Each structure stands twice: as structure tokens, then as C-alpha cells.
Amino acid sequence: MKQALVIGAGPAGLMAAQELANAGLKVTIAEAKPSPARKLLMAGKSGLNLTKDEPKDEFIEAFGESANELRPMLEAFGPQNVKAWANWLDQSVFTGSSGRVFPEAMKASPLLREWLKRLQEQGVTLKTRWKWLGGNDFETPEGRVEFAPDVTVLACGGASWSRLGSDGKWAEHFADSVAPFKPANMGFEVSWSQHMTPHFGAPVKAVRLIAGEQEHLGEFVISQRGIEGSGVYAMSKALREGAELRLDLLPKTPLEEVEARLKKAGKQSLPNALKRLKIPAAKRALFFEFGKNGDGSTAEKLKNLPIKLDRPRPLDEAISVAGGLRFEALDDGLMLRNQPGVFAAGEMLDWEAPTGGYLITACLATGKWAGQHAAAWVNKT
Ligand SMILES: Cc1cc2nc3c(=O)[nH]c(=O)nc-3n(C[C@H](O)[C@H](O)[C@H](O)COP(=O)(O)OP(=O)(O)OC[C@H]3O[C@@H](n4cnc5c(N)ncnc54)[C@H](O)[C@@H]3O)c2cc1C
Q1: Counting Cβ atoms within 10 Å, is residue 131 exposed (0-12), middle (13-18) or buried (19+)?
Q2: How far is CA 60 from CA 48, 55, 162, in A?
Q3: Are 282 and 250 part of one and the same domain?
Q4: Rounded to two decimals, what is the model's pTM?
Q5: Averaged over 15-37, what is the pLDDT?
Q6: Measured from the CB, is residue 351 less than 6 Å from ligand 1?
Q7: Model confidence at 300, in pLDDT bands (50, 70, 90)?
Q8: Which domain holds residue 87?
Q9: Angle in degrees, 0-180, between the axes of helices 358-380 and 67-76, rounded to the nearest 10
Q10: Residue 265 CB: number of other CB atoms within 10 A?
Q11: Whole-angstrom distance, CA of residue 266 vs CA of residue 273
Q12: Which of 28, 70, 83, 359 to mutate to test the pocket of ligand 1 (most atoms within 8 A of CB)?
């Protein structure tokens, strides 16, 4: 029986292992951490968003510059397949108002438990505390071990939340084939003045974020270090690339109406006038933090407030990463062109996407694709 090795037990690696086992191979998964899929479990802590229920083309376009490369994999395993896969693992799913799909349990642990059980039934062996060192070498509890399989799928993840396992150290084995890692879906640092302190932890809801050509109606959180949360993550690529962030604090009220309401407030002080407009405290604080400089009337600033960001939060804190193994270094089956028999999947690859279920779906889709192509390759040789 031919031997397949999967390195990394995140969603991409587990999916690859499932496909390799389905194809009749003897599969071993090597995982550096003492237990599998720690990032997937962490993702489940805030509600495991498995995929997004939206038309296929819209879904694929969310992957921006990598949409073309990922299209075949996402067409073969897209949102509907993710839902069916979760059902297969005894997880009922529901679709939230924004199209985001979650397991009813919300967390990842029941799904993972069932998945690991199925893999075990398929004869897959999971070796934990097995850290891949490059080549055929592993650091294991029994010391340094060599393992030379007939085919390998690498699924070592990106380079964020290293304490959960994806430390990006694998990149040193691939030199020029790796595009530099950059944070994706991350918060930004802001040098707040003292008066912002009472607002740390406060949500800023129903706000339009504007960065260059991109706009997003959503929410974010003011933190001690800056701003974070889904609205900021949605704009994070444009902001990382240098666009200025502007906020429309009253997205449902046209400029003329804001002007008229301010006029009606007459001679009241500005803080009182803003209160009368029913602008929540956190939004008022942002207005006073950033609205004092620059041109424009009060109404114009409420509708288009420039926010001074210092820098993105560090890579290790990002929800996901841009960069990784370049698609040029891989063939259509996700095999490394210069290492026949070695395939790669998941966040190791050079793509990025917003939050909203795109990340896990692409990890599962590329894991499945790499697993299937690895099985076809080894069964031919
Ligand atoms: C807080 C948080 C919330 C998230 N929420 C969501 C969400 O709701 N929806 C969504 O779509 N995405 C979410 N994500 C992103 C999602 O979890 C990741 O995109 C996904 O887990 C990546 O899958 P992967 O299999 O490619 O890599 P990983 O899940 O990172 O797994 C890689 C595995 O490889 C192992 N490994 C690394 N190097 C080695 C080595 N040298 N030897 C052996 N093993 C190694 C690691 O220990 C790890 O177990 C979230 C991420 C975070 C941090």
C-alpha cells in the first residue's frame, strides 16, 4: 500500500487526508502541536463562520487577485459543498442575515470531533508533536525521525497566531517560491489622546468605512491600541496598501439633512448639538478626536471623517495572512513544480480574502484539490 503524508492538521490538511484515504492510500498526518486544528477551534470561539451563501461568481471574486487561480478549486468545492460536508459531519448549519453560514453549535469542537473519528475509521494515523523540519526530517517525542512517504501534502497554515501552530517557519524551506507574509484581516494602531480612554472596548455600530474606492457599511471596536473588528478587517487590504480611512458616522442621513438638523440645534454647544442628533458617545468621541483638524463643516466631517492610523497590528495577531507559496511555483494540481510528489494547500498558499467564511472554505477546497491530485499522481507512478 502506498504511503501518503500530510503535514499540518488544520482544515486544509484534514481535508487532504480524507481524500488521500478515500483513494485507498495509507495516510499519516504529522502535526507539530500536541493536538490538531487549534486555529479552527479558536475560530469557533467567536462563532465558526464556515462559508458564505452567495452566488458562485460573487463568492470567488472575494479572492481578488487570486480568484483565477482558486476558481477551479472553489467551483469543485464551494459554499453548497461546505454546507453538505458539515451536514455529513452531523452538524446542522444555518445562514445568518448577511449570508454567513454557521454550524448550529456555533463552535468547532463537535464538528472536529466527528471529523477526526471519521478519519480514524478510514485508517488515517495522526501523529502529534511531530514537527516537520524540512526534507524528510521530523522532531518527535522520540527524537529526530526520518519519514519518506510516496507522496506529501503540505498544509502548515499561514504565519499568524503562532501559538496555535502556524508559525510560518516552513517558508525557509522554499526561498524564492514564497511571497512575503503580510497581515490580512487585522486591526490598526491609533495614538489616541487621553479623552478616548472611556471608550476603549466600545463598539462603533452602523458606520460606513471608506478606503479609496472601497466602502463598507458595518461596525468595529475602539480598543486601547486602536481599532479592530469586522468593519476594519473588511477594509484592511486597502488600508495596508496605503489608502486613507474615512468614516461616515451617519450613513443613513444625507449631508443636507445633517446640515439642516445642526442648524436647527441653533446656538447650542457642539457637544450638545451632537447629542441632540442622537449620535452615540463613541462616535462623538471619534468626531472630537479627528474632526478638529482639516477643512469642512461639522456636517461634512460627520459624513467623511478622516481617521489617522499609525500602522497595522503585528502579523502574529492577524486573523489571516497574505503571502505564502506563489501559484507560479505550483502546477494546476497544486504540486510544487520543482518537487514532484509534494503538494500544498490552505493558508500556506499566496491568497487572501475577507472574513465571512471565505477563509475556511478556501482551505477546505484547496485541501480537497491537493489531496485528490496527490492521490492521482501517486497512483500513476
Ligand atoms: C481568531 C480567529 C478566528 C477565525 N475565524 C474564522 C472564521 O470564522 N471563518 C473562517 O473562514 N476563517 C476563520 N479564521 C481563519 C481560519 O481559522 C484559517 O484560515 C484556517 O484555520 C487555516 O487553515 P489551514 O489548514 O491552512 O492552516 P491552520 O489551521 O493554521 O493549520 C496548520 C497546521 O499545521 C501545523 N504546522 C505548522 N507547521 C508545522 C510543521 N513544521 N510541522 C508539523 N505541523 C505544522 C500547525 O500546528 C497547524 O495545526 C479565523 C482565524 C483566527 C485566528
Answers
A1: middle
A2: 20, 9, 28
A3: yes
A4: 0.96
A5: 98
A6: no
A7: very high
A8: 3-183+318-380
A9: 80
A10: 15
A11: 8
A12: 359
- Ligand 1 nearest atom to the CA of residue 36, by list position: 49
pLDDT, average across residues 104-124? 98
pLDDT, one tens digit per residue, over 264-281 is: 888 889 999 999 899 999
Say yes or no: 116 and 143 in one domain: yes
Average confidence (pLDDT) over 235-261 = 96
What SS3 class is residue 152? strand
User: Angle, to 10 degrees, between the axis of helix 358-380 and the axis of helix 11-22?
Assistant: 30
CATH no. for residue 104?
3.50.50.60
For the segment 338-372, what is each residue's pLDDT rounded down to a tens digit?
999 999 999 999 999 999 999 999 999 999 999 99
Neighbours of 353 (CB within 10 A): 25
Report the alpha-carbon distance of residue 351 to residue 348 in Å, rounded: 9
C-beta 63 within 6 A of ligand 1: no
Domain boundary among 312, 336, 371: 312
Query: Cα–Cα distance between 269 and 167 in angstroms, integer?
Result: 52
Model confidence pLDDT, tens digit, residues 147-191: 999 999 999 999 999 999 999 999 999 988 999 999 999 999 999
Taking every pair of C-alpha atoms in the chain, what is the biggest distance, in angstroms? 85
Does one domain contain both 145 and 216?
no
User: What are the angstrom distances between the C-alpha of 30 and each of 60, 154, 232?
Assistant: 31, 10, 35
* Ligand 1 neighbourhood includes 29 CB (under 6 angstroms): no
Mark whether 104 and 79 lie in a shared domain. Answer: yes
